[in-house]
Design brief:
The chain has 117 residues and is mostly helical. The protein has four helices and no strands.
Length: 117
Amino acid sequence: MNKTDKILFIVSHFLVFISLYLSIQISYSAPQFESMFISFGANLPENTKAVLKYHYIGLVIPFMAFFGLIYIFKSNATKALRHTIYLFSLITFILTIIWHYYTVDVLYTPIFLMGEQ
């Protein structure tokens, strides 16, 4: 690997690890929100129910990017494949940030709505 590829590889790993951390954080905290909502007896909007039911979906793309980075590290991947994985890592990071923002918004909305009543 040349110097540019090494920098891209390190940055891609950094982005993927941040994505994994945020996705694991959501997957861990969403069930705790569910038990809290049940104890309050809150009526939940449909999008909150969907996030609580499918909170693990956010883990799929970061794990795919993580295993893609492992693959190019262990194999003799072509330059085009390496750059595709680097781009996929960036897209993964952006999608994870969007998923994290949406999930936090959806999970906290019922709490704000209960406070207004």
